[in-house]
Write a structure and sequence with these properties.
Strands 1, 21, 22, 23, 24 and 25 form a 6-stranded antiparallel β-sheet that branches. With about 575 residues, this protein is an alpha+beta fold. Helices cover about 20% and strands about 25% of the residues.
Length: about 575
């Protein structure tokens, strides 16, 4: 006999399936053969490291691991190279226990291994993203974005302040795989984030603040002014910028999405949708996993194909072999890899235990970029593991120029709502909640930079570092200049902006900083005729309506990216 609660669950599942066109589903779930659902054991840290298959010329190093870090989902580095980690403890269904933490990790001896861990803050509900700001971190933990400060510098937060609230508020059930996330510093000196599918009415933590609807939108804000703004969006888990300010997102089966238009431009009648899948092989592209397909996934797919349970039938009825869990995409902007890797996108597929690479191209006759697999990776991935527990939820650029991979390391990562109850009884969705790993990918022969990073930088130090080839260093210097709010900095930026012989990325960074400091006189009509199309493009985006007379010259610009 089927318990009444199970019958009720199946009735709801049937209604849901029919509403979404998943075909006929029987009213009672079948029972799996336990012999078809063997468990897969974890690997030791050393075994996991040895088992990676990575692109020739690279190696994988251990940056941090349990017990120093558990359930990591996002990282950020401060100006001294310390790593802040968001630990989503309590995943996937124990949100109300507020087990989430922020850790601060330090590499004390400079060997590349973060051996010292301090609990910076705890008692959080599912933290999903963080950025550094004024000695602390801003953290997304639905329904809030919090500021966690450390006024005495002891590595433990002694200040907790709600900055914004309302993300996902009012929903009866929060989708733990679609929470506000992806906090990143943008080239405009604002912090950007993704609402995923849990936007809602969001407002600053001020009784006088007016709520802003972020349903179907991403967002950005100035951490000083707290002026929340809707942005084109949204993806699921992951948000990244390239060196020239282009924004990219991802979702489960859409592994690389370019944001082509920005608010308010895409609200103008007649413009296409602002989000575009740019891979030539499609959003749910083929992937080449080297791990076995989880037995439970094979059974569930068979049941879906047979119409015995609800759920989408993807990949022609295959259980794996294509993107189903794209997560944490990152444009590589470091200076450790060979130059041909700069600007490439790295995105994890947590369901297939791999990190995929795409090369973005910009055809001269079109606005929209395209993305292709790299040469030599047509039938393989940049990095893959035979270990089913390897769960690359985010990639990140590090202070040393390396690519960091945040590995939640769990037996199962899957939305619990999408696993049939009869199968779920044979799984342990919390298996691995005491584990977590952070890997570093470096080229062979890599030598780690030594010494403290930007410990006591002068204004001139920060100015010079805007020209660094290391994107993390440029971003951090820009943040520190914003924190100082020094009007003298604006005068130092002018020569760099005007120097057409300087590197484009440095000039763009200086231009956006100059405008962001609200210093008068940032704009010169000469910028509209600058030899750099990227500088002309950014100038166009910064023009105010009062300067609309200059748009006419931009309309005839020979480079379509400026239009």
């Amino acid at each position: 006999m089927v318990p009444s609660a199970t019958l009720l669950d199946n009735t709801k599942r049937l209604s849901f399936a029919l509403c979404f066109g998943w075909g006929t589903v029987l009213s009672a779930e079948p029972e799996p053969d336990p012999a078809e659902l063997p468990r897969i054991p974890p690997q030791s840290l050393e075994e996991a490291q040895r088992s990676f298959e990575v692109r020739e010329g690279f190696r994988v190093e251990i940056a941090a691991a349990e017990p120093q870090v558990v359930d990591p989902v996002a990282i950020a580095f401060d100006e001294q190279g310390r790593m802040f980690v968001a630990e989503m403890r309590g995943y996937p269904e124990r949100r109300e226990e507020a087990l989430g933490r922020i850790k601060r990790l330090e590499d004390v001896d400079g060997d590349g291994r973060y051996e010292k861990a301090t609990i910076f803050a705890e008692g959080l509900k599912w933290p999903t993203g963080l950025v550094c700001w004024k000695g602390g971190v801003l953290v997304s933990a639905s329904p809030e974005i919090l500021y966690l400060g450390d006024r005495d510098g002891d590595g433990v937060s002694d200040e907790k302040r709600v900055v914004f609230t309302g993300f996902g508020a009012g929903l009866k059930r929060l989708n733990m795989q679609a929470l506000v996330n992806g906090l990143q510093w943008g080239p405009d000196g604002r912090i950007h984030g993704s609402t995923a599918s849990n936007g809602g009415l969001v407002k600053a933590n001020d009784p006088k603040a007016k709520p802003l609807s972020l349903r179907g939108s991403d967002f950005s804000f100035d951490p000083e002014l707290l002026d929340l703004r809707a942005e084109s969006g949204t993806g699921q888990y992951g948000l990244t910028f390239d060196d020239y300010g282009r924004r990219y997102l991802c979702s489960n089966s859409r592994h690389l999405i370019a944001v082509i238009y920005s608010w308010p431009w895409n609200k103008v009648s007649g413009l296409p949708h602002p989000l575009v899948d740019i891979p030539v092989d499609g959003g749910a592209a083929e992937v080449f996993r080297i791990s076995q397909v989880e037995p439970w996934r094979v059974v569930r797919t068979r049941w879906r194909v047979q119409g015995l349970v609800g759920g989408p039938v993807e990949g022609g009825g295959r259980a794996a072999g294509y993107f189903t869990a794209a997560s944490g995409l990152t444009v590589y902007r470091g200076d450790a890899f060979p130059k041909e890797f700069r600007g490439n996108v790295f995105v994890g597929d947590v369901g297939s235990n791999l990190v995929h690479r795409k090369v973005i191209e910009f055809p001269k006759d079109r606005v929209q970029p395209v993305a292709r697999r790299a040469k030599g990776e047509e039938k393989r991935e940049f990095l893959a593991s035979p270990d089913n527990w390897f769960r690359p939820v985010q990639c990140a650029n590090g202070p040393d120029g390396a690519l960091y991979i945040v590995d939640m390391y769990r037996e199962t990562i899957e939305h619990p709502w999408s696993i049939p109850e009869s199968i779920k009884q044979h799984l342990d969705l919390y298996s691995g909640n005491e584990r977590g790993r952070i890997w570093r990918v470096v080229p062979e022969g890599f030598k780690r930079p030594v010494g403290k990073l930007l410990e006591r930088p002068t204004l001139a130090d920060l100015y010079r570092s805007l020209g660094s080839e290391n994107g993390w260093l440029r971003d951090t210097c820009a943040r520190l200049l914003l924190q100082r709010d020094d009007q003298d900095a604006a005068t130092l930026l002018v020569p760099l902006i005007a120097n057409a012989g300087s590197e484009d990325r440095a000039r763009l960074c200086a231009l956006r900083l100059f405008e962001r400091t609200r210093a008068p006189g940032w704009f010169s009509p000469a910028l509209l005729h600058d030899p750099s199309p990227e500088l002309r493009r950014h100038t166009a985006r910064l023009l105010e309506p009062a300067q609309s007379a200059f748009f006419k010259s931009l309309a005839s610009d020979p480079d379509p990216r400026v239009w």
